Sequence to fold (313 residues):
Amino acid sequence: MGQNSIAKKRILIAGGSGFIGSSLAKKLKKNNYDVAILTRNIHSVNDYDSFYWDISKREIQKKALEKVDCIINLAGENISNGRWTPGQKNKIEESRVKSADLLFNAVRKLEIKPESYISASATGFYGSFNTDKIFTETDHCGEDFLAGICRKWENSADKFQALGIRTTVLRTGVVFSRQAGAFPQLTQTLKFGFISAIGSGKQFMPWIHIDDLVKMYMFTLENQEINGVYNAVAPEHISQSELVNKIRLISGKRFKSPNIPGFILKAMFGEMASILLYGSRVSANKILKTGFEFNFPNIEIALKSLLYNTTTK
Fold:
């Protein structure tokens, strides 16, 4: 579908104030979309129409859904915001599942039918463990906490499909951005001249550059044939040790420091340490077959962009 034919379509973003949502909103506005944001604090968003919602209270401003062509749901508590206590686990689940349910119930009650619903999910769907297997979208859900959350998250998205709304789910890997997320945390010790791998270093890290993730959301929005589940990961697989070595090489910090032992991370973070210590390869083939092209298909190009703010085509 050409850009001229979709100009001025109204896009409602849930979770639009996060670093992914804000990057996407900026890109949408630049491409002449009419962007609206759902937020608990409508005075905190100045660049876009903002509407009130509160997931815990199951409240949403009805006007937010008026004349909406697409709903993009990025809402979700950061999984690395502290130890996974029972209360934090509940917060992680409710922020994802109840956000989708709130949107679904509002759409059904108001009897509206957006053209599409696009939801985030995560590669955690496949489970947190180390294996030689390369996971594709047809593989079964894992059995740990995050996998269960992703399954419920995606089941909530499926309800929109049942209403005849084109529904797409992007199972997202670790998002690399200069401003926020995992990359600044991973590289914060570079200023001291070193960077360390985590645990064995053999665990794979499915990753994607923030610009490619935003581009994938745009691609999904603009192409009506994109439907169902897609892995939002770069096509290049890399282990934690390989990633750290690439960062050392490109940053010029050649000093090799010992890996951070897994038992220390488990003592510090408890069950949450699993997201750091375990990881498998995840395939990008399905999205590539649709014609999507990555600007950052390999880690070297991505790291040069992130460390030195270089650009691609």
